[in-house]
Specification:
This protein is mainly α and 91 residues long. The protein is 96% helix and 0% strand. The chain is built from one helix and no strands. The chain is rod-shaped, with a radius of gyration of 39 Å. The relative contact order is 0.04.
């Protein structure tokens, strides 16, 4: 009987230690899952923000293209008007 109690006591300590380790790992796993979910959420938000910024960039590029075309037309009109003024008022 004494041997059996000693053997049981001898096995109980490592089992208790393993249970403690297991609980620690379970808590760590839970924390890592939570962190992973947080990162997924952040990634999702960043993708949405990136799409908004891409849309804004495309809009600005289109407006810039329109301004370039308008500037080119105005520049041509200005040159034509300068030529006309020189023809009417030669030096």
């Amino acid at each position: 009987m004494f041997k059996q109690n000693l053997k049981s006591s001898f096995l109980e300590k490592p089992l208790c230690d393993e249970k403690i380790k297991f609980e620690g790992l379970r808590v760590k796993s839970s924390s890592l899952k939570e962190f992973c979910n947080l990162l997924k959420s952040e990634k999702h938000n960043l993708l949405i923000e990136m799409n908004v910024l891409v849309f804004q960039l495309e809009s600005v590029e289109a407006k810039f293209g329109n301004l370039e075309r308008r500037f080119t037309k105005l520049e041509k009109k200005y040159i034509d008007m300068e030529k006309e003024v020189q023809i009417r008022n030669p030096l």
